[in-house]
């Protein structure tokens, strides 16, 4: 079990399991962090160890948006997944400019490890989710450590894709709703990367860009599900750029990219709730039926 002190702040029975929220003191980001954990009925009733899905949320979100609005618990209970949903940034550090805008700073960590002041000490969300939280969850709950998937929305979709491409030994499956697919070429990403990584070495930005990382990905063969609503205003404004990810993935035979365009759907949690079950089916295929899947792909 983990030596890190977890404090349970809420617990609600849902779909036969329990939706819980915990806090802990994070070494990576230097403050108290919150995350949600759904424990499915298979854990409670059958004492089973279960696969894990890690959800990364988008701009302005806390751990509450996904666990309160998406309705994912029904699918998690059906498939027997533990689901982890962390906050999107450190909180209440009182750094200069931390709360000046909605798309940078607090609530907008972008799942990078910052390299410039004043952000580099605390804004380390990449290491937080891929190392500290990953290890903490495995040590604290009845997980199958070799069976983790990752998914997310918008900024969190960007995070899910980049964390997967950089850590295929940890994550066996990946999907995303309306992800920021090419942040080095969109206003959101350019603002965040200039702020967190500096603007002197823009080549360094590519280490957190899915459309760049997919070109050099050398992990296990994988099918990636990307979900996108065609009525999404941010898609229309050129913030998401899924077409760039499609083009980039064409050069890598290890990656099969499945982009589902959803007619009439926007960027909201109404959209996520409408198709969340498809994503659980996708991850179940890779986490539970992975051997059969790889045989079909000829791996």
Layout of helices and strands:
Elements: E1 7-14, E2 17-25, E3 32-39, H1 41-46, E4 50-56, H2 64-69, H3 73-79, E5 82-86, H4 125-140, E6 143-153, H5 155-166, E7 171-177, H6 187-197, H7 210-216, E8 222-229, H8 233-236, H9 242-249, E9 255-262, H10 269-287, H11 290-296
Parallel strand pairs: 4-5, 4-6, 6-7, 7-8, 8-9
Antiparallel strand pairs: 1-2, 2-3, 3-5
Helix pairs in contact: 3-10, 7-9
What does this protein structure show overall?
This protein is α/β, with parallel strands linked by helices and 299 residues long. The protein has eleven helices and nine strands. The protein has helices at residues 41-46, 64-69, 73-79, 125-140, 155-166, 187-197, 210-216, 233-236, 242-249, 269-287, 290-296; strands spanning 7-14, 17-25, 32-39, 50-56, 82-86, 143-153, 171-177, 222-229, 255-262. It has a nine-stranded mixed sheet with strand order 1-2-3-5-4-6-7-8-9, with helices on both faces. Helix 5 links the parallel strand 6 (143-153) and strand 7 (171-177). Helix 3 packs parallel to helix 10 and helix 7 runs parallel beside helix 9 (242-249). The model has no long low-confidence stretch (mean pLDDT 95).
